[in-house]
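Handout, section B. The chain below has 173 residues.
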Amino acid sequence: IETVGDLLETIKTLDNHHFVVAYLSYGVFIGYVKQGKIVFYSKNIDLNRLTEIRVFNKEEELYAYKDGDNFRYRLRKDEEGLETDVVDAKQVVIGTTVSKSLSGNWTSLKEDRGTKITVPFNITVDKDKRLTIHTRNYISYSNSGQATFSDSRLIEFLDSNNKLLEVNNERGN
């Protein structure tokens, strides 16, 4: 994968049941894949400023990051490849309050300090009930037996009751 265009062609091969977390030089955006295309709430996202992207579901993750003028990537599929130990965790997504519910089942979350992110779910949050993302960290061992995290991936979004959140939006690019 050399260009953003190459990356988008690769994403077209994935099914519709994938979430997207895109890191651009000016912000982080969460969306999903629909009919081979990435869908974000905002239509004004310049993917030419992409620095890193994760396209994932419960079974796999395509991770790509900018390296000079090109992208490096890996596709990790659980249940394939060498068996390894893993540590699963839940990471809290920013947003202690709902800034506003948006059309098409999107919600804008914000922190007291002003940071905002829009997610493709119709949810409520507060300081005690937060949106989380389930992560998986892969462990490898050196020849001397020293354990280290060798890779990690995103798996799924969970609401404050640990209920799996799925995409059910109609708004799209």
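Note. The two ends are 23 Å apart (CA to CA). Compare this with the example in section A.
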